[in-house]
Write a structure and sequence with these properties.
Chain lengths: ~200, ~260
């Protein structure tokens, strides 16, 4: 499939050409939407809205990674949906660092008054545990770790998709991985031996 | 897990894991990995987390998300609205320009109209001069005398000459008097130079009026000037287009 030719034909109004692009990217788009939304139906709605938005705004594609451009449509639709459902608070959980505009980490973030996961859920599959921890991240951090670690995108593609500087992508990814690791520590028993913390492995 | 590493250190470790460091930064990280246990432990924990995330299965899309024309008709129709809007704007701008041109540069537009009848008359005079040469009359022939209240004819008696007012008097049939000097009405033709014409004096009630060759006053512009008022026509055309395109733009905006 010559992606450039399909994009050019789609720009001229050929819906069939655009649908061939949809077929090529819909699995990727749906996976990203699902990891962002945590629900299949909501992910499907966001994916459909994203492709409609992509067709309408095809004129804004200025070359580069079409994959990154499509995923930008997907993440934007997910953000819109999350805001609409009030699942993503508009005010930050943590105070903002005035220098880089990012949330300030504090040990209090890790401590939680909620019951430990193993007390609430007797049996949790690994995927559900990871999804649970993903949904504990802010939308911006979740987007970066989903695109890089789950979908294998390059840093530059993610920067183009999310429209933030490369340095911000790197810092958000580092902090997201650390928070995920801390969250998954509560599901230690569910984790395969190779994924457990080194000191537990030694035990 | 509590970590005393700074955000910069964590970012370096994460980027090192993805091989996204410059050679200089990579060397620094590797040096610290050899020296600091916390640095090494954090790297391993990030590596295991990334591996865990990558182990998640990729889901297939539950259905096709291809688009159908029914999903997009509003969008296609909406694209016409800006076209009509911009067309209306362009037509309005042209109307204003033409109107401004007629107001600030009236000479440019009126001179072209005034020159038209003179230019239209020149070919007629040219053809008359050609006829004169064909009939053997020299250019120095006595110019015709335009008699008021009467038509003047050339030597053939059929071609009407000059201006003078009044209706045609078909009863008058000028004929040359052999014993007299040639009458101005029978000899000579219209020359190419209009200054040679001798005009009669108009009656008081027709002083200052523009008259046709038959002596009738000019009542409409079309009788005295055959050139169309081009700027006015353009103003009407572009003004109409402005209204039409604006109406279409509003119609498409409301309906679609």
């Amino acid at each position: 499939m010559d992606e450039a030719a399909l994009v050019k034909a789609a720009l001229l109004g050929e819906l069939d050409a655009f649908n061939r692009l949809v077929m090529a990217y819909q699995d990727l788009a749906f996976n990203v939407a699902f990891r962002m939304m945590g629900d299949e139906d909501e992910a499907a709605d966001a994916t459909q809205a994203a492709f409609i938005s992509a067709y309408r705004n095809l004129g804004s594609f200025r070359g580069g990674s079409f994959k990154a451009w499509v995923l930008r449509m997907v993440t934007n639709c997910c953000y819109d949906e999350l805001r609409r459902k009030h699942r993503h608070p508009t005010s930050p959980l943590e105070p903002i660092n005035e220098q880089d505009g990012e949330e300030i980490d504090s040990p209090a973030w890790i401590a939680s008054d909620e019951p430990l996961p193993e007390d609430t859920l007797t049996v949790i599959e690994l995927e559900q545990a990871i999804q649970h921890c993903l949904e504990g991240l802010s939308a911006e951090f979740r987007t970066v770790v989903v695109l890089v670690d789950l979908q294998g995108l390059d840093y530059d593609e993610v920067a183009q998709s999310v429209h933030v500087p490369l340095g911000t992508i790197k810092s958000r990814l580092a902090r997201a991985r650390l928070k995920l690791r801390d969250c998954l520590h509560g599901f230690e028993e569910l984790l395969p031996i190779e994924f457990r913390l080194e000191d537990e492995r030694k035990q | 897990m509590k970590n005393s590493l700074s955000l910069r250190d964590l970012t370096l470790i994460s980027s090192y894991l993805d091989d996204r460091l410059s050679p200089a930064d990579k060397a620094k990280v590797e040096a610290r990995l050899n020296e600091e246990d916390l640095f090494r432990t954090t790297l391993e924990e990030m590596r295991s987390t990334r591996q865990m995330l990558r182990s998640l299965p990729q889901r297939r899309a539950p259905r096709n998300f291809t688009l159908s024309p029914e999903m997009l008709p509003r969008q296609h129709r909406l694209r016409l609205q800006p076209v009509f809007g911009w067309s209306s704007l362009a037509a309005a701008a042209l109307t204003v320009l033409i109107f401004a041109g007629t107001q600030w540069l009236p000479g440019a537009f009126s001179a072209s109209r005034q020159a038209a009848p003179m230019l239209a008359a020149a070919p007629e005079m040219q053809s008359a001069a050609t006829d004169a040469a064909r009939n053997g009359v020299s250019a120095t022939a006595i110019p015709p005398l335009i008699i008021w209240n009467s038509q003047s004819y050339d030597a053939s008696g059929s071609n009407v000459l000059g201006m003078g007012g009044g209706g045609p008097d078909t009863s008058f049939a000028p004929a040359p008097q052999p014993s007299e000097e040639p009458s101005f009405t029978t000899k000579g033709l219209v020359t190419a130079n209009p200054d040679d014409l001798i005009l009669g004096i108009a009656p008081a009630d027709q002083q200052g009026m523009e008259l046709t060759a038959k002596g009738e006053p000019v009542t409409s512009p079309s009788e005295s000037s055959s050139a169309p008022d081009v700027p006015r026509i353009l103003e009407i055309v572009f003004g109409s287009l402005t209204v039409i395109f604006a109406a279409l733009a509003v119609l498409f905006r409301k309906r679609f």
